[in-house]
Design a protein that fits this description.
Blueprint: E1 11-15, H1 18-29, E2 34-36, E3 39-42, E4 52-56, E5 69-73, H2 78-87, E6 91-100, E7 103-109, E8 115-120
Parallel strand pairs: 1-4, 5-8
Antiparallel strand pairs: 2-3, 3-4, 6-7, 7-8
């Protein structure tokens, strides 16, 4: 079987305020947002980065999100990144620090309430 040729092109987000939400996520990723009408594109930063595309809400916001981003940082860097993101507008939700031996994470919400996690995995021996 051949390896998949599928790659992540962009994470698309509907937002009440696409420009403001793109600005928040630019602080997360380090990217520079580029507006085009009512939409904003946030390009990937570096070879391991990911792009995001923000557009106006097309309907009412769902009561419950069924998908969220898990962002990974180096071991020992999670709390510093969480502090940086909260200072930039994220809202702390909860920590999971000892439930699983292979990962610990903090769940945050962006300024529009979309959940995302910042996780760290211990180094492998």
């Amino acid at each position: 079987m051949n390896a998949s040729r599928i790659t992540l092109g962009s994470i698309n987000v509907e937002a009440e305020e696409p420009g403001a939400l793109a600005t928040f996520w630019a602080t997360v990723t380090g990217g520079t947002p580029a507006a085009n009408g009512d939409s904003v594109y946030l390009p990937p930063v570096g070879p391991g980065g990911f792009a995001m595309f923000f557009q106006p809400l097309a309907g009412p916001r769902p009561d419950r999100l069924t998908i969220h981003l898990d962002l990974t940082v180096p071991w020992g860097a999670r709390q510093g990144e969480v502090d940086r993101l909260v200072a930039g507008g994220a809202t702390w939700q909860w920590d999971v620090l000892d439930e699983h031996p292979h990962v610990r994470w903090t769940t945050l919400a962006d300024p529009e309430g979309n959940l995302f996690c910042v996780a760290e995995h211990p180094p492998t021996p």
